[in-house]
UniProtKB/TrEMBL annotation:
GO terms for molecular function: hydrolase activity; nucleotidyltransferase activity. It comes from Desulfotignum phosphitoxidans DSM 13687. Transmembrane segments: none annotated. The lineage of its organism: Bacteria, Pseudomonadati, Thermodesulfobacteriota, Desulfobacteria, Desulfobacterales. Residues 8-167 form the MobA-like NTP transferase domain. It comes from the Bacteria. This is MobA-like metal dependent phosphohydrolase. It holds the Pfam family NTP_transf_3. Keywords: Hydrolase.
Length: 368
């Protein structure tokens, strides 16, 4: 895949003074931070990627070249960011429609975020586009190349932010369920947060889950309480079982399993939404929270914990006596007896598996 007409400028010239280590070469997800930023764009088909270098260029530039990007040295890098931006913009391939601008210390952005921004920009390439999470704009902006000459003409104390403010009427925001657009590794604490985020990039965190819920469900929708309740029970199950399960995956799936509850075949609809948002592992768990396929010879899996937690939570609260609820459904819906009975049997099997793994009863697990 090649994305024509879009370039990327990555800023990696600074001293990293607050970090006390050279940020572009610090490992994030098993790769240097600068390479992760390059891969973010090259993985979306962008071939014109300029990395502005300065401090420790001798160490940085070979890494940049090996990653398939073009290093451009800014001799005046110590004077501030504006000159580095101008140096990068000046080296963008001619004839391009737009370019991303990304500081190298913001490496926790999902590839799907860049993909959606490219798609949106191509429908209106004269607008400046900003990613947004929870009402806050973040990185990377996608700017039309029509602004190049004005950027190159900027002189301090003016900044790129000033120019972008002048373009407010031509600026669009794109809401993303990606907290990474706001996260930087400017200091050791920020670096630790970014490293943790990248380690779980394919799973939305709690804030991102809430953003998805806010998009899909009204603030007073009763399903919201159910989602929170299922997540609470699922977390207790995670901590109880001895089998290795991914707690982040369980919590995300629990918080999102009924996000499309008002639609027919809501499990499949919710899974489709999460696939589109770039969360296939969560989608797989959500898709099976109504009709699950069990492997009784495998360790307890994340999808089982979400499935079982969902069966314990009713509109009135937590009730571990799911047996009478299934009996009631059978009496009320005899035409669906086969599917109801299978769900009941699966619930019983999962309870037995959880109790065997935890070495205690469900009653004791929930009481702890």
């Amino acid at each position: 895949m090649m994305t024509s007409g879009i370039s990327a400028v990555i800023l990696a010239a600074g001293f990293s003074s607050r970090m006390k280590a050279f940020k572009p070469l610090l490992p994030v997800g098993g790769t240097p931070m600068v390479k992760r930023c390059i891969d973010l764009f090259s993985g979306n088909g962008i071939t014109d990627i300029v990395v502005v270098t300065g401090h420790l260029r001798e160490q940085l530039e070979p890494v940049v070249r090996d990653a398939g990007a073009c290093p451009v040295f800014h001799p005046g890098f110590a004077s501030g960011m504006l000159g580095s931006i101008q140096q990068g913009v000046a080296h963008i391939r001619s004839g391009q429609a737009g370019f991303f601008l990304l500081p190298t210390d913001i490496p926790a952005i999902r590839p799907t975020t860049v993909a959606r921004m490219i798609q949106q920009f191509q429908s209106d390439p004269l607008r400046l586009l900003m990613p947004c999470f929870n009402g806050l704009t973040g990185h990377p902006p996608l700017l039309p190349c029509g602004l190049k000459e004005r950027i190159l003409a900027l002189a301090e104390p003016s900044t790129l932010r000033d120019l972008m403010a002048e373009e407010k009427d031509r600026t669009g925001t794109l809401t993303m369920h990606d907290r990474g657009v706001l996260m930087d590794a400017d200091d050791p604490a920020g670096y630790r947060r970014v490293v943790h985020k990248v380690r779980h990039l394919d799973i939305p965190d709690r804030e991102e889950c809430l953003a998805i819920v806010n998009q899909e469900l009204a603030e007073d929708h009763p399903i919201r309480n159910h989602l929170a309740q299922v997540a609470m029970i699922a977390l207790k199950l995670v901590h109880a079982v001895a089998d290795p399960v991914n707690v982040d995956l369980v919590i995300a799936a629990a918080l999102l399993h009924d996000v499309r509850r008002m639609e027919k075949n809501h499990a499949a609809a919710g899974a489709a939404l999460l696939h589109d948002l770039g969360f296939p592992r969560v989608a797989e768990v959500v898709e099976q929270h109504m009709n699950i396929e069990l492997d009784l010879h495998a360790p307890v899996q994340e999808k089982e914990l979400v499935y079982f937690a969902d069966k314990l939570c009713t509109r009135h609260g937590v009730d571990i006596d799911y047996h009478h609820r299934f009996r009631h459904r059978l009496e009320k819906n005899p035409w669906a007896a086969t599917s109801i009975w299978k769900r009941y049997e699966n619930t019983r099997h999962i309870q037995a598996r959880i109790e065997a793994s935890a070495g205690k009863s469900i009653t004791k697990i929930l009481a702890d």
